[in-house]
Every structure is written in C-alpha cells, then in structure tokens.
Model the fold of this input.
Amino acid sequence: MSDSELDAAFFVRWMVAAAASVEREAGRLTELDSAIGDADHGNNMQRGFAAVVKALEADAPTAPGAVLTSAGRQLISTVGGASGPLYGTLLRRSGKTLGDAARVTRQELRAGLRAGVNAVAQLGGAAPGDKTMLDALVPAVAALETSFEAAAEAAEEGALATVPMLARKGRASYLGERSIGHQDPGATSSALLFAALAEVAA
Amino acid sequence: MLINVPETVVADALRGMAAAHPELVVDAENRVIVRRDAPVADKVALVSGGGSGHEPLHGGFVGPGMLDAACPGEVFTSPVPDQMVRAAAAVDSGSGVLFVVKNYTGDVLNFQMAAELAEDEGMQVASVLVNDDVAVTDSTFTAGRRGTGATLFVEKIAGAAAEEGMPLERVEALARQVVESSRSFGVALSACTTPAKGGPTFDLPAGELELGVGIHGEPGRERRAMMTSHEIADFAVDAILEDLRPRLPVLVLVNGMGATPLLELYGFAAEVRRVLDEREVAVARTLVGNYVTSLDMAGCSVTLCQVDGELLRLWEAPVETPALRWGR
Done:
C-alpha cells in the first residue's frame, strides 16, 4: 500500500488488531508478569484494548490522530497500574502530534510515535536498557523509517533482548539480580502493538 | 477461592462493603468509597487508593479520623485517575485534598495524572508518597522503596490532624513526618493466589521462606530455609534498625499478610517486642492484626514509626472506620 493511504480507518483497524492480539496473548503476558511482576499484565491490557475498541465502535473519529488520542484516553481511564498511564500517554501524545490531518504518511506516523515514546520515557523516567517497554518501542520507531515489517521485527528483537537485562524501573526492579533471565512483559506487549501495525499494513 | 468469576471480584466485594457499612457510600460502579458525611465543612479531605487485594487497606480505613475516600483498583493494579478525581470532588470541602500514595510506579503515575486533572477543576491538591520498605535498595536507578505498612500510620495520623481542622500544609507536613519516621520489612511463608491467575504468583516450596517481600505477591530478595518466629523477628527488626535508629519511642505494627493466624501473629509480636527490648528501643504502642495484606499470602511484616508527643497524640485520637476503631 502507498503511504498516503493511512487514513482513520487504517488506524481503527490497527487498534482492533492490537486488541485481538492482546486478547490472544493475554495468558502469555500474565505468565511473563508473574515471573517478575504481579501477574496481571495480560488482563489489564485486555481490559484496556477492549474499551478502546468499544469506544471506537461507538464513535469512530475521522482523523488518524483522533483515533490514537481516543485510544490513549480509554487506556488511561480503564487500565490502571503503570501500563495505563504509559500506554495511554504513548497513544495520546502520538495522536496529538499527528494533529487533525485526514491522512498521514508512514514517516509522519513515525514522527508522531517518536513524540509518544519520548513522552513515555519522560513520564516513567526510564531509558533503553532498563528492561521496560522502551526496549521494544525505541528500536521499533527507528525501524519504522524502513517499513512496517522492519518495525515489527525490531520490536520483537527488542523484547527478546530484555531477557538478560537487570530491571531498573517498575515492579520488576524490586527483584534486583533475580529479574535477569526473564522477558519484560511491557516490552512484549509493545512488540504486539507493532506486530498488529505490520499486520494491518500488509 | 471463594469467588464467582475473577472479573467481578472487586465489584462483588464492594457490594458486600455497601451491605455491611451503611456509614459509607460505596459506589461499586465507579469504584469509590466515601464517608457518608463528606464533604465535612472546613476539613482537609484525605483520599487514598491502590490495587485491591490489600484489604482492609484502603476502603476499610474510610471514616471519621482517617480517610474521606478510597479508590480500589483491580487486584494489585492501581486505580485510574478518573476514580481519584471523582473521589476528590466528592469529599473536597474547599479546604484542599491530600492524596496518600504508596510508592509503586502505577500508583504514582495515576495519582499524578489525577492531581493535575483535579487542579484543573479548581481543587487544591497535595500528595504524600509512602515508601517505607527497607528490603528495597533505594536509588535513583530503581523505582525506589515500596509503600507498605507505614500507609496505615500515615492515614491514621494525617486523618486525625485533618479531623482537628489543621490546614492542608500542616496535614501534609505531618504525613511526611510519619513517612520519614517509618520503616518496614516483610516476610512470606507462602505465595499468594491472584483470582486472575488462579495459582500461586511464585513458587515457594514448603519449608522455605522469602525475606523482604512486598505486598503484591512479587518474590522477595532472598530465600532461606524456614526460620522460627524468634529468628524472623531478629532478622526483620534488625533490617529496620540498620536503616532507622529511633531516638524516640516507636509505634509498632505487626501486620499479617492475610493467611497467618492471629495466634501466630501475637506470638510474633512478642518476639518483636523482645528484640526491641534487647536493642533498647522504647515502644509507645503496638498494633497487631491483618491490615495491609496480600490476598492469601502467609507471612507478616513489621513497621516501626518513631513518634514525638504530637504524632502519638494524633495516633491515639478517636477513629471510626470499618477496620480501625477506637474512642477517647
């Protein structure tokens, strides 16, 4: 597909695909979270994205930015925990950066997501290497310059790369050295988000 | 588990609270628990909240002399900003609102967003962060120390100060003084079972214990072969005293994690008192019971809070909540 075809409907399909993916993988996310967190990441993401889809079904915005802003607001209002504000901020800030354009290019989406990822880093006070969602998001946004596919692959690799890391932020950080050897649940769900994006773009 | 389905655990419990406590307004749909006479004129309002699974914290501490409102989240998941703003609006008399926040990334982020939204609505909001768990190494490179048992001390003492009509800055300063004067250490004899997972959150074989656990079923920092109550008290109290050497008498909270019988908790409280006597730490008051729990986890935590005359007076002040209740 040509880049200029990224309209609001594309973004709605992305959110629907993300919800389906989170639904499918909820058990795995919760399993990863029980190793180094508190065993609820799958359920929380499932609840949040179900609310996102419901809100978009009730009232689908006509601009890509508005779709992401609406999704972010739903996540903040329904997820709780750290994931709610962090994922909510990611999508809201990305959406606000896209503005009210009716169509956006892949490069414009990349710029929007980069602003969203920066806002997440600022809010959570984390940096790449801390074993958080940033370890999937940062390489994914960089690779989005090449293609949707490359972004999904970079996110997946980023999530896998969290396994040997020592957690420095969030609940896993309480484990210290014992956090090593486990894949970060937040980085894993971030990879699902980019896999869903590649899926709807294909 | 004594539940219907995992999805309705929190809502079901709130309906039960409403049935048992007509002195509270329990909004099960929006997940806000408010004392019935709120907003109380000319009184600073205290609002807290956090994940469910720690009952009676926080909803059981709503009432005269303690919290004005509490917002329960999903099990072990912080509530959302919408709940906190709704709670603040319901209890604010115009004298300001103090958010009592346990130091977990999720709680901090959601309360931060809520404070901004409430201020946008014209409310005056201050926040105090509770971070008393000495098992967590505190550094700028981590999420910092967890908020655990000291939350009860903060909510009780700041709640009494607010009830006496002290202004927001004073209530906030006292809450901070309690945080700075408090330290905790927790031990798990078993993992807990979250309704969503249906199985233990970590694998702890019988005959072993986890030292330095939090209250969310997360594993601790160290695992050892089972210790006696005597040995656990030595370990926990010394871990605290290493960090805070009290110059004043202390309030002692011997807290059960949910599945340890009171018989064992009182036995443990005797051991805690023995260690404190041996270390020459004066005890002002001792509270024993299940107050800051972790679902069905077996185990306990110790919290010490050193108190001057004013903090002790506020601790002793009358309180009337489902879980903590005493008169003059």
User: Anything to note?
Assistant: The interface with chain B takes residues 30, 34, 36-40, 43-44, 47, 76-86, 123-124, 168-171, 173-176, 178 of chain A (CB under 8 Å).
